[in-house]
UniProtKB/TrEMBL annotation:
Protein name as annotated: Alcohol dehydrogenase catalytic domain-containing protein
Species this chain originates from: Cohnella herbarum
Classification via SMART domains: PKS_ER
Alphabetized UniProt keyword annotations: Metal-binding, Oxidoreductase, Zinc
GO molecular function: oxidoreductase activity; zinc ion binding
Family from the record: Belongs to the zinc-containing alcohol dehydrogenase family.
Chain ranges of the Enoyl reductase (ER) domain: 9-337
Cofactor dependency: Zn(2+)
Alphabetical list of PANTHER family matching this protein: L-THREONINE 3-DEHYDROGENASE
Pfam families: ADH_N (PF08240), ADH_zinc_N (PF00107)
Source superkingdom: Bacteria
Amino acid sequence: MMKAAVVQGAFQFAIEERPIPEPQSGEVLVRIMAVGICGSDIHGMTEDGGVRRRPGLIMGHEAAGVIERLGEGVEGWRPGDRVALDPQWSCGQCEPCRHGWLNLCENGFIFGSSKLKFTHGAMCEYLAVPQKQLNLLPDQVTFAEGASLDYVGNAMHAVNESQSRFGDTFVVIGTGAIGLVAIQIARLRGAGKIIAVGTSPHKLAMAKKFGADRVIHSREENALEVIMEETDGKGAEVVIEAVGVSDTYALAVQAAKRRGKVMALGFASNEITIPVQPLLFREVSLIGITGYVFEAAPVLKMIANGKIDVKSITTELPLEEVQKAFEMIVGKKNEVIKVALIP
Ligand SMILES: [Zn+2]
Ligand SMILES: [Zn+2]
């Protein structure tokens, strides 16, 4: 038997005993060593009537661990290999998959989600996963760092898809884990100026440390005015929206330069309202971003080489403290940015 954190209701968990899963053909059994709590684990319990994180589910899609045992027909992996899990299951057969857009698979789903399928995730001691979901962890990358693959991949995918050029101005709205990593990646990508918008002084200080040239506390300053001052009244080539409510999307659209791009990552709300004129009359592109495609290897390489820092934004807690971890994040009292649970 193994320990598992099981969803009882919105932000309610119980640690239960569950059978250790059997790896099926083509699967490996992974001993989970770290599992992150994602923003989608938070709003997935309340938005959409909570369908994304239903009671009975073991959540957790940001995970890393050690291969315990191989199922039938698995090649190229050995027990003891350290791995980071790609939570995006893809079929490999549909049209998007055949184009290589595995993040857009028509039959895809995510581990630890109950939206498209009720598939248990990694907030437990063992998980059986298809071998194609495995990424080898470089020796220098810790398990808690390896568990960041999903959200760092997401941030990197947003920057890649913006096709930004050297010297572009980036506005990053939202200073959660994804926003803070997007700032680091934008800087590495040759951003000429980075402006971060947030509401937490602690996170804004981190944003500055990671390379933001100007940070804006949006409750104390008029973010749009400051962005326009900082960009000679023109706006930014790239805006990364990493919050997902109407106000922040409205700001994103208005903060973009003529022909600028808004990379849409945030989805705290299911529906948003944006002013349409600044979008149309300045030919701003609003580009949806989900998951990642080719970014897994670069993410792990860049963490291994110290180019992306996730350690400073991660708080490690034992799995048994899952309830407390959610209370810390939802209550916003403690200055936690990202929690990695250790089973
Ligand atoms: Zn996630
Ligand atoms: Zn597919």
